[in-house]
Design goal:
Layout (H helix, E strand, L loop, with lengths): L13 E10 L2 E2 L1 H9 L6 E2 L12 E2 L12 H20 L10 E5 L7 H11 L6 H10 L3 H6 L4 H10 L6 E3 L5 H14 L5 E8 L4 H9 L29 E9 H6 L6 E10 L12 H14 L8 E3 L6 H15 L8 E2 L2 H4 L6 H15 L1 E2 L22 E2 L4 E8 L3 E8 L4
Parallel strand pairs: 5-6, 5-7, 10-11, 10-14
Antiparallel strand pairs: 1-2, 1-8, 1-9, 3-4, 7-8, 9-15, 12-13, 14-15
Helix pairs in contact: 2-6, 3-4, 7-13, 10-11
EC number: 2.3.1.179
Family: Belongs to the thiolase-like superfamily. Beta-ketoacyl-ACP synthases family.
Enzyme class: transferase
């Protein structure tokens, strides 16, 4: 009998057997991949709420799944469900309430935003403006659904009920690194032998007026409203901020040997995961880039490879002046002069920044890059930044033999997470 396949540290290899995605580009892997590789943008003018007097009036909202009045947690749940259904079907499991594994779910830090809370006050007949009074109003009206909508973790609980996952669902929020962190937790649970498989979801449907104002006050959003499709310009000299967006990515992770035993198709493997905190500032990164550099190095070490093994880098690439400069500097520190010849591109140039969903969405696109041998471009790269000497795959997709991808996710609050995604092991 052949020995079970282990990684370089003697741990179970973690395979990906299914994935799904929904973004402003469309629903499903096929539609998203076709749009992404053709260089099409999903950024458009906001129609969900009035934008009078707002500095930013564009976003990557997903408007085809929910009506404009849908509360943010319901929209976040709908996106998650859509992506998860595709991932579970691709993995070959029966739809319904019988997924034989754990659930790890990245969700927004505040699932129920204030516009939805105010609607609940009105529905409950309570004019109070404090969270405890909202809970009291829901309980007083004996409305369990209303009460559950106010609780953090509600989205994951509902997904666990819908798909029948095992054990208590894990909700997490590590800012813009959340989707990658959820994948990390799923990988580590399988490596430890706690579960044979995991359903991992990153989801965010929280684009509403409060969120736009909040990020605008941080001067984080682009104000290039005149041409929405051209507003996100990662690594360009004239970049001026990110585009807030919605979406969801879902992956089915499995112990490689168990997946092969049941006849599953292996779509790729998660070779390395890493996370490194940065306590320098609530929104800014440490100027020397040391936490980001450490996260990248730890991911490579966890994968048992050196920088030379990476065929492509799926950048965090938000299009903010500071983030892109920090990411470029950190990659140069890890890869050295060789970084100039490693293709690196940002999906956010087309889909915007899906916040807590981003790491999972971009992991799906990393797997598609490996499987299709085609690197999505960084669009809107018309004014190169002379201080960023990277091959950003400008404007047009590129055919390439990609066997291993470094996918970066860096979030406000010092949350830095990196993944190393690879083709099926030989």
């Amino acid at each position: 009998m052949a020995e079970p396949l282990k990684d370089h540290s003697g741990r179970p290899v973690v395979a990906v057997t299914g994935y799904g995605v929904v973004t402003s580009l469309g629903q499903g892997v096929a539609d998203n991949w076709a749009a992404l590789t053709s260089g099409r943008s999903g950024i458009h003018r906001i129609t969900r709420f009035p934008t009078d007097h707002l500095r930013t009036t564009i976003a990557g909202t997903v408007d085809f799944l929910c009506d404009p009045e849908t509360p943010s947690p319901v929209r976040t749940e709908r996106l998650a469900q859509t992506a998860a259904e595709e991932a579970i079907a691709m993995a070959g499991f029966e739809p319904g309430r019988s997924f034989p594994g754990m659930l790890f779910m990245a969700v927004p830090p505040v699932e129920l935003e204030w516009p939805a809370r105010r609607a609940i006050y009105r529905q409950a007949g309570d004019t109070g403006d404090a969270y405890p009074r909202m809970i009291e109003a829901a309980l007083r009206h004996n409305d369990r659904a209303l009460y559950e909508l106010t609780l953090y973790g509600n989205v994951a609980d509902r997904m666990a009920d819908r798909f029948g996952t095992r054990g208590a669902p894990i909700s997490l929020s590590t800012a813009c690194a959340s989707g990658a962190t959820a994948i990390q937790l799923g990988v580590e649970a399988i490596r430890r032998g706690e579960t044979d498989r995991a359903l991992v979801i990153g989801t965010d449907g929280s684009v509403q007026v409060e969120a736009v104002i909040r990020f605008s006050l941080l001067s984080a959003l682009s104000t290039a409203n005149d041409d929405p499709a051209a507003a996100s310009k990662p690594f360009s000299k004239n970049r001026d901020g990110f585009i807030i967006a919605e979406g969801a990515g879902a992956l089915v992770l499995e112990d490689y040997e168990r997946a092969k035993a049941r006849g599953a198709t292996i779509l790729g493997v998660i070779r390395g995961v890493a996370e490194k905190a940065d306590d320098f500032h609530r929104t800014r990164s440490k100027p020397d880039g040391s936490p980001v550099i450490a996260a990248i190095r730890q991911a490579l070490d966890d994968a048992g490879v050196g920088p030379e093994a990476i065929s492509y880098i799926n950048a965090h690439g938000t299009s903010t002046p500071e983030n892109d400069k920090m990411e470029a500097m950190s990659l140069e520190a890890v890869f050295g002069p060789a970084i100039a010849s490693v293709p690196i591109s940002s999906n956010k140039s087309m889909i915007g920044h899906t916040l807590t969903a981003a790491g999972a969405v971009e992991a799906v696109f990393s797997l598609e890059t490996i499987r299709n041998g085609l690197i999505p471009p960084t669009i809107n790269h018309n004014v190169p930044d002379p201080s960023i000497q990277l091959d950003v795959v400008p404007n047009v997709a590129r055919a390439a033999n990609v066997s291993m991808v470094l996918s970066n996710s860096f979030g406000f609050g010092g949350q830095n997470a990196c993944l190393v995604v690879a083709a099926e092991p030989a």
